[in-house]
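The records we work with from here on pair a chain with its fold. Here is one such record, which you should read through line by line:
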Amino acid sequence: MGLLSDPSISTQSKLVDGLARHVRKVCTVLYVAGVAWFFCLALPEFNHGTYLSENALSPGLVYPEIRVDANRLAIQLLEELQRERKDHLSTTPHAWIAAKMNEFGLETHTHNYTLRYPFGGGKEYHGKNIYGILRAPRIASTEGIVFTAPYRAASSVHTDISPSVPLLLAFADFARRKNYWAKDLIFLVTEQEQLGMQAWLEAYHDGDRDLDVSKAYLRPGNLPARAGSLQAALNIEVQDLEIDYVDVRIEGLNGKLPNLDMFNLVQRIMAREGIASGYKQTPRKKRRHSKSLFETNLRQMLAMLATQSSGVPNGNHGLFHRYRIDALTIAAHRRATHATLKGQPGSAAVPLLKAIEGIARSLNNLLERFHQSFFFYVIVNNDRYISIGDYMPALVALVACAFVKAYLMWSTLPSTEAGGELDTEERDADTDVEAEKFELPYGSVLIYLTATLLIGFLCNVLPLQQYFLEIPMGAAPLTTSVLSFLSLIGFILPFVVVLPPGGLELLHVAFLLIYGCSLIVIGLLNFALGFFVAVLTVPLVIALETKEDTSRSTLRHAIRLLALILNPMMIVYVIVLAMTFYQFPELPLQKILLRAATAAMDASAYGLIDSVLYGNFLYFVISTVLLPLWIICWTLALSKRRDYADYVEFEESPASSPQPQSPSQAKVKTS
């Protein structure tokens, strides 16, 4: 007679067995709940209104002091800069910028840096930044604020933002005449945009002191002068002095964001000056059919997550975040028709200059770094947001599918079931028959996992090895060739390596645990990337079979096809193909496919370059995390598993009739 503690008759065992039989349904419910929760966040009942947590900012409590003469100076400087640009079509007029900073009384310095291009065969490129420091007259140089403007050469293919430099210099001339600054003000003009910004930040904080010059790709050099500890930064990108609206850009490197208080500060100052501004602001157009509030909010949320998921900052401000400096970009777009503002000729730039003054004076009031508001949030509207405590449950519900399935699979592994049943038979029958034990092949599975991780590691190392760099190929073909070759090895690996009995089940459990932990870590570092990866891949994780079912051959083939499509390189190509089709709908299908393939190759090379220069971990996540996980998933999709009863029947077959055994057949050890 069995005891009450017998696991074969316990309520917990029956519950686990019942859940294991319906594991797909349980995981599907969790998946739907996670996606539904995310969609509900677009409703006003699930998000919150913005507010200022830092009272020291005190936006709008002082009257702006900038007048029309600052606008006239900006116009004059813009005319002079346009004449200089004719003589510097592909370079930066460093001498003119430095001369103007000296003329306005700033402590002007030049910063030189060197780039050793990873795929350039040892070629070096030199750049130069110009910056001026306005020392705080009321306190020692212990804290500082940065105002930066990137300079784009006349030959650049990007939008002309040359008015940014005159506007920055006009504000510097105004700030020099005031004595209420409690922080050093740094006015920086960078060359080569983000590359110059990255070099300046590295030189400001570290320099060449702890740098191996022979191995570094970016040698930032040393700054001749520094200010205090940087508290905040404002990047200015202006297309014309006659502006229509201001787009406030906040996404930084690896999806990091500035403190929400800084975004709210800019919004309030811009509204006070009558400037149309906002996150992903667009021109105001009259539309016949307005979208619903839910659709508008959902589009805004998805647009922000799409920008964050790439990990690429959409402005120079994004590189400040890794140094714990809150920064954002105000991108002013030109008017469609150059109509003067409020009928006052020559005063178009005054509202923007007043807004910059208001932001600077509010930042000047800070007693400490931004810390009271949120650093992890999603902008729903210009005055609505979602905090991390509201959107994180959506990712947790998606990842819970992997952990629930892993627990149920582990609870029903052959070793657990066989041991419990045979022990009960021994106690009931009181026989001398020893229990059959099924040992899981931990060593084989560990070796297989190590092999897949090694493939991902080689994706990061091989493209930058000297032997591969000497191959006469461009950066894009070389990187794509290495990734394709290693992906092909991962594709063939399940056909070459056959795990011993029980190895597939154990590999499945290990895959679910590694997959869930990886998504949690990625989601904490970059929620957008983790959420999109979970939405795409969790259905495949749910569909993977735990036991062989010969009656569902169609489903098994569909799972294998889905696993093949979800190859990381295939996903990158599909995303680039969709973007190409959206931007060039007039092209024929053949040219779209070819252009998308070329763009996908370039994306792989740019991802690797961003990884080694800026620290963008998107390439690392795709190659070192997602590719090994895909190889394991592909192995499980191809596998043919057998129940524990089949292993026992095979072991009990007569020894007098030996038959050739395939590697996939089981071997049960008896003690």
Summary: The chain has two domains: 14-39+395-670, 55-284+311-335+343-367+377-382.
